Amino acid sequence: MEGQLRGNVDISVKKPVETSPLSFIALLKVHRELLVSRIRNTQCLIDNLIKNDYFSTEDAEIVVQFPTQPDKVRKILDLVQSKGEEVSEYFVYVLQKVTDAYYELQPWLDEIGYKPSENICSKPVVNTDPVSRYCQKLRHELGRDSKFFMLYAQKEEMLLEEIYSNSIMELVSFTNESLGQVGQLEALFDDAVGLINEDGETIYVYGDAGIGKSILLQKIQSLWARKELDIGAKFFFCFRCRMFSCFKEDEAICLKDLLFKYNCYPDQDPAEVFHHILQFPHTVLFTFDGFDEIYSSFDLSSVPEVCSPNEPIHPLALLVSLLRGKLLKGSKKILTARTGTEIQKNIIRKKVLLRGFSRNNLKEYTAMFFKDEQRRALVSNQLEANPNLCSLCSVPLFCWIIFKCFEHFHSSQWFDGHELPDSCVTLTDVFLLMIEVHLNRAVKTSLLKGNIRSQAEMFKSRKESLLALGKMAYKGMENSSFIFEQEEVSSANISEEDLQLGFLRTVKGYSGCDSQATYEFLHLTLQSFFTALFLVMEEKVGTKELLEFFSECSSMETAQPTCLRIPWLKKQLAGEDPFQNKEHFNFTNMFLCGLLSGPRQKLFRHLVSPAVIKRKRKTLITYLGESMKSRLKGYTRSRLKSYNQVQVQPNFVWMLRCLYETQSEKVGRMAARRMHANYIKLAYCNACSADCSAISFLLHHFRKRLALDLDNNNINDYGIKQLQPCFSKLAVIRLSVNQVTDHGVKILYEELSKYQIVSFLGLYNNQITDVGAKYVAKLIEECSSLEYVKIGANKITSEGGKCLAQAIQKSKTMFEIGMWGNQVGDEGAKAFAEALRNHPRLTNVSLAFNGITTEGGKSIAEAMQHNNSVRIFWLTKNELDDEAAMSFAEMLKVNKKLVHLWLIQNQITAKGVKCLSEALKDNTTIQEICLNGNLISQEEAKAFENEERIICF
Question: What's the distance, CA 613 to chain centroid?
Answer without folding.
Answer: 40
